[in-house]
Amino acid sequence: MQNKKNTKILSNAFKVFESTSKNVKAYQRFLQINKISPQTILKNKDFSSIPIMEKSNYLLAFKPLELVPFSKFPPMISASSGSSGKPYYWPRGSKQEERGARFHRTILKDIFKIGKKNTLIIICFSMGNWIAGTFTLSSLREVANDKDLNISIITPGIDRNDVIHTLKNLAGNFDKVIMFGYPPFLMDIVLEAREMKINFKKLDTHFVFAGENFSEKWRDLIFKYAGITNKKNKSISIYGTADAGAIGHENPFTVLVRELTLMNKDFRQELLGNISFTPTIVSYYPEDTYFETINNELVFTSDSGIPLIRYNIKDHGMLLSSENVFSLMKKHKLSKYITKDIKKWNNPIIVLKGRNDVSVTFYGLNIYPENIKAGLESNEIFHLITGKYIITTEPTNNHREQKLKIAIELKPDISISEEINKKVTNEIVKNFIELNTEYRKLFNSISEKAIPEITLVKNGSEQFIIKKAKHKWVQTK
């Protein structure tokens, strides 16, 4: 049965290749440049011989109209966030939004189980050029047509005042509230709403996060600040991109897997290998997006607004079958967690291990955002800071060495002090040493020179206000 399913999934990928090679001028030229005959590929069923696409060799190498089928743009266009460079404009059509509706329907009906309850959805993604806000809105408008659901949608976007007013003046009229947003922004909202005595527990609040990895401790913290004691099936993280729209999302099984990797070191090691943070783990829909891994990078094929065949998105990661994960759970004596409810979530899994282009390089080693966040979530300091920071590396005055600098935002009622600075520095260094093997070696080698220079910044400073799709954690000089 599994082989038949895999054959069908690969067959769908071949159909995308066949239609794109017929209808997209840029792809026809791309194949010619790489001396590839579509007929030979289809005859031999040799998908692995299709050349790899990247932004540089495909998207930026041809004119935009040459990249879309029949040289005609679909109805909608969004921009990538530009977190790894200049924003790129991605078209999308009704096919992508129909997938998005199926995707969001699963979250609302099968995970959050909202049923017929009167539910307010607050979209806190940017409603400008970026994909998250407009794509989420169009997907949920389709879901709102379901007769067995009762949802209403409001779109304050990333205007903090509008979100707070919505929670204060509107949300109380509904049985449930679901907030969609970028994790650091939703944390800002929860902290501000807490000061205003808004009762998230009474609102029966659920969260849908997207745009960034976070730890299980961070998930616990946002529920703690919101006063919500039972977090089961109340938050889900989405993996989506401007390139292909919604790709994957957490479910009760993937959240459990993350929790088990923190409980059982042997299970974590065998499942994830050597990694200095807990990665995003999501299930995905292979009939919509066909994934491969090449040199530990994710490569996918999808019939998107710009059809993408073996496109390297530059995300580091791995692919797992649910069967493989269940097998490892049994091996490590974790079978008691494989309940009937968990077993039904059997889609394949993506483990996202981050990107090299959103880490900072210090003495030749990569320091990832998750390494820093772990320190900022420490019990010693999390009540003092918001969790937002900006990291950069600069040469010292003699240009012979590097200095790692981190600016960190304080909570609204906290003042800058040397004592807090020392606490924050100690927690960050302690977690670097514990989580990042290469940093530990560096610290043992150069000692104090490896200690970052911490600058505390008052809450609400310009550099920490989220104005677009995402906060820029890494600053380049």
Describe this structure as you would to a colleague.
The protein is an alpha/beta fold and 477 residues long. It has an eleven-stranded mixed sheet with strand order 4-3-5-6-7-8-9-13-12-11-10. It is globular, with a radius of gyration of 23 Å.
CATH topology of the largest domain: Rossmann fold
Strand order of the largest sheet: 4-3-5-6-7-8-9-13-12-11-10
Segments where pLDDT lies below 50 for 5+ residues?
Answer: none
Secondary-structure-based class equals: alpha/beta
Helix content: 25-40%
The span between the termini is 54 Å
- The radius of gyration computed from the alpha-carbon positions, rounded to a whole number of angstroms, is 23 Å
What is the CATH top level name of the largest domain? Alpha Beta
Number of domains: 2
Number of helices: 16
Kindly report the name of the CATH homologous superfamily of the largest domain. ANL, N-terminal domain
Overall geometry: globular
CATH architecture of the largest domain: 3-Layer(aba) Sandwich
Largest β sheet strand count, sense and barrel closure:
11 strands, mixed
Oligomer: single chain
How many distinct beta strands?
Answer: 18
Report the sheet-strand fraction.
15-25%
Q: What value does the average pLDDT take?
A: 89
